[in-house]
Amino acid sequence: MSSPASRPVPPAAANLLNLRGAVDLSSLKRPAAPSGTAPSGTSPSGPPAGEAQEGQPGAAAGGPELKVNVTEANFQQLVELSAQVPVVFALWASYSPESGRMVETLDRIVASYGGRLVLGAADIEAFPQLAQAFQVQAVPTAVAVLKGQPVPLFQGSAEEQQVRSLFDELLKVAAANGVTGSLDAGGAAEQEPAPLPPLHQAAYDAIEAGDYAAAAEAYRQALKEMPSDHEAKAGLAQVELMDRLQSVSAQDSEALRTLAANEPDNLEAQLGVADLDVAGGHVEDALNRLVAFIGRNFGPERETARVRLLELFEVVGAGDGRVAKARQALARVLF
User: Can you tell me the distance from the alpha carbon of 113 to that of 127, in angstroms, rounded to the nearest whole number?
Assistant: First the structure.
């Protein structure tokens, strides 16, 4: 099996790809720190309810500084650091009761990832330009930055397990984009080399260029050479999904959802909305939609929906609990 870094960008990363140029961080730039160093001002501080105290995760003596108080002076350093490890920005405000709890939760969770993530706690009352740049509508809000590009995570409160699932997906996106570093005890980012097999590298390069058809062809060739290449199989399912979605506009999406609601047995409409839901993070809705369609229909359309459902299982990941539940539901409607 190939290295995790050979996985293509998962559907959740469609946000990352589509946000290029949509959010301009350039106006917030300050002189960057030397490459490979953690930003200054990294004492574990933040809103009162979220302060890291001695002995808490992220504040251990001699450990890496994984929580940063974001300022105009160090913001660009954090953006630069996102080329080596994903940086999670927690945007908070003193007038928001949930802010302290969110930062405290994120501090604890980020610390548990052992330097593979960094948390930036940003007071939008002190740094309002950041909220404007990230197009934040309310606080608290969590936004990741990966290779200088923002990836929306969530707004308001979130359960710890949900946050961990988001971070796990973020790290998959990071690996697919060659960001596999971690912070050592001195706060420096150490990059772990992850060479890819030639065909996986070709697929990755094609994804970077936005040529999903070429990426799919590279993964198909990898599967011809090694049918047991699970990374190539997952990669193929992911880039095919991205290829299907790249020409779908917001107006098309709305029309497709209306059609699917009005015609529950319209195969193309149900497949299209399932794609949209997986890409938008509504995984259970997508899988349940196709299971329900399979349960109502027979013949070639049923088989087409079944094959697409199996492809979406690969996209989401075989180890995901939502896939396990959907597999059980599929078995019930088939047998």
Answer: 27
> In angstroms, how far apart are the furthest CA atoms of the chain?
64
Q: Is the dihedral of CA 106, 109, 111, 117 positive or negative?
A: negative
Give the integer Cα–Cα distance in Å for 5 and 201.
Answer: 10
The residue among 61, 151, 79 whose CA lies nearest residue 118 is 79
In this structure, are residues 2 and 200 in contact, taking their beta carbons and an 8 Å threshold?
A: yes
- Give 29-39 pLDDT, tens digit per residue: 443 333 344 44
Encode pLDDT of 90-124 as tens digits. Answer: 999 989 888 888 899 999 999 999 889 999 999 99
pLDDT tens-digit series, residues 263-308: 999 999 999 999 999 888 888 999 999 999 999 999 999 999 999 9
* Residues in CB range of 326: below 8 A, 6 or more apart: 284, 287, 288, 291, 309, 313
On the question of a cis peptide bond just before residue 140, with omega within 30 degrees of 0, the verdict is yes
| Interatomic CA distance for residues 258 and 252, integer angstroms | 10
> Can you give the pLDDT at residue 188?
53
Quick check: 244 and 325 in contact, CB under 8 A? no
